[in-house]
Amino acid sequence: MEQLLEQLASGLANGAIYACVALALVMIYVSTDHLNFAQGEMAMFSTYISWQLMNWGLNFWVAFVLAVLASFVLGVLIERIILRPLHGAPVLSVVVVFIGLLAICNSMAGAIWSYLIKEYPSPFPKSTFGFAGVIGPHQLGVVLVTLVVLGLLFLFFRYTPLGLAMRAAAQNPQMARLVGVRVDWMLALGWGLAAAVGAVAGIMVAHIVYLDPNMMGGILLYAFASALIGGIGNPGGAVVGGFIVGVLENMVAYAGNQIEKATGVYIIGNGEKLTVALIIVIFVLTVKPAGLFGRVVVKRV
Amino acid sequence: MAALLEVKGLKAFYAKTQVLYDIGFDLAEGGITTLLGANGAGKTTTLRALCNMVRTEGSVRFDGKEIAGQPTEEIVRQRIAHVPEGRGTFTTLTVEENLRIAAYTRKDKQAVKVELDRVFAYFPRLKERLQQQAGTLSGGEQQMLAIARALMLKPRLMLLDEPSFGLAPLIVVEIFKILKRINQEEKVSILLVEQNAALALNLADYAYVLETGRVVMADRADVVKNDENIRKSYLGY
To answer: Could you give all domains of chain B from N- to C-terminal order, each with its CATH number?
Structure first.
């Protein structure tokens, strides 16, 4: 029982990370109809920025805030400089640019900070408390920090005029222009916010997966799965999808371990959890192609 | 009195296809002007060209200032409200959000509340539906919402594209009455594009008739209404 709770808790912590990256993906998807394959590598780069700042002697949280701000600015710049000229370009051109961006982030991080795996500190106190043994302090911290970030984003989009303008621009850019919204800037802001949310995910997960230029590869896959499960056009769905995928993969591994313990036969374990999780995702999408919370888009022809 | 809107040599293109050839007209301040024409005559395109939503050449002067070539959102910010064809609302946003978004460009946030009340005076039905998603409104209510949102911009000029489109006759009459009131009480000049020529000519004081991207007739609405060719081609009697 305790093991189950432990797995559940760590699933939630992983899920929080997937939720953030999935949300970043969805934020760009809803406003541009493109999936940013470089989202994970951008987050990794942000994490290196925070590592560098800490290396220069800054406190973790100061480095955290500065790195997130820097990521926001980088996200805006990437949109304005790299993607702006591609407005109206064929999907494939954009995909190629995203993949290029991915490679650039990856090799730049490698060139600047080397490909050696680095340890990354946890900002959370190592004290044990009520749930000790079930959820580690870092995992609990990750869940709390991401929930705060997600909550702030929700409040921003739901209650501020700028958030409203960004939603309007994403829903119907042409109409948004007709009420005076500067849609191009809204897109750039969206990129900035997505990069910032990705940075939070990267910084939070680095202590668990260690810091190296390829740290976000697997996480991006999970994030895609999360976004798809939740319904790719639905930010709330992406967040819930993230937690579902995080818990699901751990439950798969847990069930595998239990089976092995009971029968001595190894069927599935930690090594297969990604595979099994993705199989379940495919199953969900076969039954509900729009995702669990997605809306079926009906197009008039 | 100088015209509020002066259009000269306006051309518009969809990709390489030219749709408007040398459109020119003036719009008097405070009046209601209508653009008539058959399907494909270029009425909608003219409205879109005024807001630079299609590739455009030529001159558009608003209140004496050249606005052609400016981005759509900057033109709108000079208080030209465009109500597009087919109920242009943000379907996933609530009615209230649809209205508030129009006040986004305004600096005086306190005035938004006053503004909302002013708009509800014209469209009391929207007030009952504030928290409803715009996409779930009836067609007539969506059209009202689109006009209400245009009003939130405190426009000097309102461009209306087929406000009667797909609506029940009774609703259309209601909406046209409201448009008349808006024109008189808010001093908003209106440029109206309509398929329903009889309706448009009753509301408007001046009319331009378009045929395949050119202006072929321009006169006072009552004169146009009694023109034999117009009667035969557009009014059907």
So the answer is: 3-90+154-235 (3.40.50.300)
